[in-house]
Design brief:
Blueprint: E1 4-7, E2 15-21, E3 38-40, E4 42-44, E5 48-53, E6 61-66
Antiparallel strand pairs: 1-5, 2-3, 2-6, 4-5
Length: about 70
């Protein structure tokens, strides 16, 4: 999903970084998710507050808010 919308209502506006991705080489992945990239929340008219993220097929990604 190239522009998957991940809701951030519970955690709030700000910047987020991936802290875990099952797409890392250690887990047999292809490292398509950057662990250094900062994702910033956006407000979408129909969806509300969230992040637009890239999540490869059959992949788990965990994001953490950066203070």
């Amino acid at each position: 999903f190239p522009d998957f919308f991940l809701h951030a209502h519970a955690t709030g506006a700000g910047a987020y970084r991936a802290i875990f991705s099952s797409d890392e080489r250690d887990f047999g992945g292809q490292e398509r998710v950057s662990m250094d990239y900062l994702y910033h929340t956006v407000e979408k008219k129909d969806l509300g507050l969230g992040l637009e993220v890239y999540i490869p097929c059959r992949t788990c990604v965990v994001f953490q808010k950066v203070e």
